[in-house]
Specification:
The protein has 44 residues and is largely without helices or strands. It is 0% helix and 0% strand. It is rod-shaped, with a radius of gyration of 19 Å.
Amino acid sequence: MTFQTIEINLDYVSNGGTDDSELQVDAVALESHHDVPLGTAQKG
């Protein structure tokens, strides 16, 4: 399975007070599901 395009949107919203306009991201998770109907899986 190959992903041609992956787009990740991160949103920063200030809750008032001091706004340092910095977004730090430690990790982003991707979850993928590839469903194949029964009896049609390729044999290899």
